[in-house]
Amino acid sequence: MADELVHYDVVGGTATITLDSPHNRNALSAQLRRELSESLDKARADDAVRVIVLTHTGPVFCAGMDLKEARGAGAGNQGVNEFPKILDQLWTSPKPVVAKLAGPARAGGIGMVAATDIAVAVHEATFAFSEVRIGVVPAVISLTVLPRLNARAAHELFLTGDTFDAKRAVEIGLLNSAVTADELDGEVARYVKALALGGPKALAATKELLSKPRPVTPGEGFEAMNKLSAGFFASEEGQEGITAFTQKRKPNWVPEA
């Protein structure tokens, strides 16, 4: 049996999913895709998990699809056919997902970064939508990347395939922050701690809210949004949060330090 390429670990309410295939720059091989999808399912289903961190071993976060496996395969047998499920698992996860990059990402790797809620990388990390340079289209990842990027940057970077740095990735909306290597663990821990303070059901509903199309005018959305808001104020989770606030204590969903 081949060694696992994705490691799964839960500590203090945080599930850490680690890509561990440095020999091919954590490329999205069939085995890695399968194990990553299984790990995401496990984290999403575990009530003890409050936050998911997606990270990696080796110098590269993810190089995109495994081109050795793609070579010679017909359209129906391409590994990219399995990739939408992984992007959807990240995007629709009821638990917030944080991407932690100690190195570069390319193509499908950037698609995963964009599908997470929070993304932090070291200053030295670089990025490129390299698809057009090998004659393919960044089609699947466009569905997670384009909602993040400003339009001018998307046109430039998708069409040229040029490499850009972490500073620009922050400026165009791909990353939340770029830090030094020494600061990476602390920055990710800061986000994880902040996310874990939110009510689990409230976080899931807020993630869903953020993904929905906006009404043309506020007036068109007030009825549905008021129903959602009032329901959470009256819910068991909402009442616990309100009570905890008035009693100057942490709500019962906050993991123990």
Automatic annotation (TrEMBL):
Molecular-function GO terms, alphabetical: catalytic activity
What is this protein identified as?
Enoyl-CoA hydratase
Q: Which Pfam families match?
A: ECH_1
Q: What InterPro entries does the database record attribute to this sequence? A: ClpP/crotonase-like_dom_sf (IPR029045), Enoyl-CoA_hydra/iso (IPR001753), Enoyl-CoA_hydra_C (IPR014748), Enoyl-CoA_Hydratase/Isomerase (IPR051683)
Source species:
Amycolatopsis coloradensis
Write down the PANTHER family for this protein, in alphabetical order.
ENOYL-COA HYDRATASE, POLYKETIDE BIOSYNTHESIS ENOYL-COA HYDRATASE PKSH-RELATED
- Which family, according to the similarity comment? Belongs to the enoyl-CoA hydratase/isomerase family.
